[in-house]
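so my prof wants the structure for this chain in the tokens format not the other one, which i didnt know existed until like an hour ago. anyway here's the sequence
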Amino acid sequence: MIVDAQVHIWDPPSDNRRWPAGGEVRAREHIRNPFSASQLLKEMDAAGVDRAILVPPSFEGDRNDVVLAAASDFPSRFAAMGRVPIDRPGVALRIMSDWADHVGAIGFRFTFSAGFFASRGVSGAWLTDGTCDWAWRTAEERSLPVMLHCPGHLDVIRDIARRFPRLRITVDHFGASPGAVDADVVRSVREACALAGLENVSVKASAGPCYTRESYPFRLMQTCVKMLYDSFGPMRVFWGSDLSRLRCSYKEALAYVAEGCEFLPSAGRRMVLGDGIRQWLAWP
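here's what i got, hopefully its the right format
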């Protein structure tokens, strides 16, 4: 079973569904706009992908309606990692408290990029001064895995993982920053590998073709997958496409790992391509 660890789907903005300021500009970084569940299913069927983890895109705001509807309509194909307004703890806690009541709702994704801090007018110190501890504590108490996109702050993940040892954390996108490419990504992968000793930390080998100037079969990104695999092992490295940003075909984004990473043994390949993330997220 092939499981894509990250795909965005979203609806277009409208009078009844307004996006935050700057959202439409940031959406242009994605080559598919908008991108629906039905479109995604067609792409998955053509590429041979069985399931996908749906992540709401940040440019839409802190909305979960589209991914929850898709997970409810297609429970054998989709599961949802939701978003919460981290700068509004009261609202966020209500969402997290009710999350397990939704079909296919299995965890949360938090974004802490430079763009996030700028758009919210909040401080990067939130990651280190305890401001966000309520989120990690709630997720741990409710056995809700989290995916963290905090490029440049991987040391913070080490601290969170140690203080909340029952919290399952997945590092996004090789640990790399948006716009990183080639050698910059390799450096980020080395930093991510330093977290491998923490058993509650895993990593997504996602959006690989977006992080290199190379064309298929993306040899450098195969090397990055190997670095992660050698450090984290087969059960804590998860392939993902980030399909809406790809500048290659979906089949190529899958094949560079499924066919190209010859260092993967058959059992390890199955784990990286789907079995691992299903177990990590407890998605039967």
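also thought this was worth mentioning. The chain has eleven helices and eight strands.
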